[in-house]
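Inverse folding, one chain.
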């Protein structure tokens, strides 16, 4: 639900809030804006490399 709140606020022409209640929102936007992609296959090695990279970046931010 929150993923469409920002574009609807920034670009009210193509995105419009049609209906809202306490637990849901209904948006209208062009069908061409919707895309379906296969999930990316990430190996354990790639996952560990990305994990180490983020640990390094986070420690750099803390030290600055």
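Residues assigned per position:
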């Amino acid at each position: 639900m929150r993923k469409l709140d920002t574009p609807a606020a920034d670009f009210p022409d193509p995105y419009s809030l049609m209906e809202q209640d306490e637990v849901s929102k209904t948006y209208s936007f062009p069908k061409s804006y919707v895309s379906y992609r296969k999930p990316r296959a990430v190996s354990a090695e790639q996952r560990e490399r990305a994990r180490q990279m983020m640990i390094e970046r986070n420690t750099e931010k803390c030290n600055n």
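The mean pLDDT is 90. The chain has two helices and two strands.
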